[in-house]
Amino acid sequence: MSASSNPPARADRPVPRAVAVSAWAVPVMVLAQFALLAVVPVAVALVGALTRVRDRAVRGSAALVAVAFAVPLVVWLARPDGAPSLSKDIHPGFVGLIVLASCALVLTVHRARRG
Q: CB atoms < 10 A from the CB of 7, how many?
């Protein structure tokens, strides 16, 4: 029998791949009107950055994305007369803020991976 041809996982990676993919997924999902489902990549990016990344800039920008996303989510959940979906209820200014914060996260992840 031959050995497996899968390359070993890199343990020295400064930023996990899940954080990098989540950083790209957040703005795509928010702009594509899947804002409520964007909770998943926001959570993955935040937890992954806070637990597995040593770079403070990545952790800070992941926290910025989480806060920028949490504000309209809490407003939507707290309003009794809100729209049936977060995408329809979210203010365009918050969409822009979430996209800008996600771009900052993408750039800091890219910088951290370049090392």
A: 6
Report the 10 Å Cβ neighbour count for 90.
Answer: 22
Contact criterion met (CB below 8 Å) for 76 and 90: yes
Cβ contacts of residue 115 below 8 Å, gap of 6+? Answer: 14
Distances (CA, A) of 14 to 81, 87, 98, 111: 44, 33, 24, 10
1 C-beta neighbours (distance < 10 Å), count: 3
Q: How far apart are CA 14 and CA 25, in angstroms?
A: 19
**For every one of its 115 residues, what pLDDT tens digit does the chain have, with 9 covering 90 and above?**
556 565 544 556 789 999 999 999 999 999 999 999 999 999 999 999 999 999 999 999 999 999 999 999 999 999 988 789 999 999 999 999 999 999 999 999 999 988 7
Q: Quote the Cα angle for 58-11-50, to 5°.
A: 30
DSSP code of 55?
-
Q: How far is CA 108 from the centre of its chain?
A: 12
